[in-house]
Specification:
The structure is a single chain. With about 210 residues, the protein is α+β, with helices and mostly antiparallel strands. It folds into two domains: about 55 residues; about 120 residues, no CATH class. It contains three helices and eleven strands. Strands 1, 2, 7, 9, 10 and 11 form a six-stranded antiparallel beta sheet that branches. β3 and β4 form a beta hairpin. The relative contact order is 0.13.
Length: about 210
């Protein structure tokens, strides 16, 4: 039996144990690597695709200058049909001048009247008749009948005195037949104390 220095057997055992442990760890590492590689290979491609789509959608919606392209703009349709601009001349009354704006014409039938130009008991005034609305209108033609309708109802007037009927004043009227009329005073003709009123008129028929 060959001579062995003291402690040599223990050293050999330690070395042997070390290499056995390292070998076992190497095998485990190899198995884990193969397993993870297989899992990644088996992972559905749809997950990556879904993540990309979500990221793109967030960038589109959160970007200040970005706007969605999938939704087309909608335009609200008006229930009113616009007629061309015409002239309406309302003569100064001996007492009352009733105006049917649905035709339009001067009328003696008060039930068809939408506005009145009157001088009985007043120096002269313009007012609306029963079941109609008269309000302050925009100086320029409204974009739609609905805009003029809102003005007639939200900026309502009971009466406009003759001295306040200055050229350039505009009014919106909702008639007895629920049509809408924009009137802009273009000219005052005749006597200063009793002028005829000449309006530019636009009608929207409901």
């Amino acid at each position: 039996m060959a001579y062995q220095p003291p402690g040599t057997t223990k050293q050999h055992s330690a070395v042997k144990t070390f290499w056995l442990t390292a070998g076992a760890l190497g095998v485990i590492t190899t198995i884990l690597t193969v397993t993870l590689t297989k899992c990644m290979a088996d992972k559905p491609a749809s997950t990556a695709t879904t993540t990309t789509v979500q990221t793109t959608a967030q960038a589109t919606t959160t970007g200040g200058a970005s706007t969605p392209t999938s939704a087309a703009p909608t335009t609200a349709s008006s229930r009113f049909h616009k007629e061309a601009v015409t002239e309406l001349r309302v003569p100064f009354p001996s007492c009352y001048t009733w105006v049917d704006l649905d035709v339009p014409k001067m009328t003696e039938k008060t039930g068809d009247s939408d506005v009145m130009y009157e001088s009985c008991g007043y120096t002269g005034s313009l007012s609306h008749y029963d079941f109609t609305s008269l309000g302050v209108g925009p100086e320029t033609e409204p974009a739609s009948g609905e805009d003029c309708q809102r003005a007639a109802q939200s900026k309502a007037l009971a009466r406009v005195m003759k001295e306040d009927l200055t050229v350039g004043k505009a009014f919106c009227v909702v008639t007895t037949r629920d049509n809408v009329v924009w009137l802009k005073l273009r000219q005052k003709v005749g006597e200063q104390d009793g002028p005829d009123l000449v309006f530019d008129m636009v009608r929207w028929l409901g």
